Amino acid sequence: MIQRFTAFLLFLVVFSFLSFAQEEEDEKYSRDIPNKEKKADILDRIHFGGGAGAQFGARTYIQVAPQAGFDITKRFTGGLGINYTYYRYNLDVIYGSGGIYQSSIYGGTTFLNYRLFESVLLHTEYEALNYEYYDNTLPGFNRRWLGSFFIGGGYRQYFNEGRSYIQVLLLYNLNYQPNSPYSSPLVPRISIYF
Fold this sequence. Notes:
By secondary structure, the chain is of the alpha+beta class. It has helices spanning 2-21, 23-30, 35-44, 91-95, and strands at residues 46-55, 59-71, 76-90, 100-115, 120-134, 141-159, 164-173, 186-193. It has an 8-stranded antiparallel β-barrel with strand order 1-2-3-4-5-6-7-8. The protein is elongated and about 55 Å long.
């Protein structure tokens, strides 16, 4: 736990120095723009997108994860999102017996991105998910909320004259737990924004 906390503090210190280094450029971003242009500029700084996925068969997953982001500065973006995943297991096919098991995972997320270079970025995210898990102490399935704090980085590929992009991230869950909805503390993410 102390190692995770130390890594998190180190990340924040490095991140804060990088953000101060961009102060002059970021101030130019908001100064000297007439009011009409500022209004149009604000709309240009909003991005919508997210991720979606599906798998069908003995294990069925359907996921939608819309997000909205706002360019706070030229390099710094913050945003919010929601996440919904439906899953269904045909245990008869997987294990030979057991019937059908189905459930949902839902929750929200807030994130911050800092672009180090044109396409390389640092990412931090807090996500709260409500999911069903098997509890050995109280036999049966129970629901609970789990907060996860992610840090990582990624690559952004622009298209559509630089307005849209695909983002590929590799994140590390700082408070990963064995009964988490994630199978590993390393979590890859691919999303698209317009």
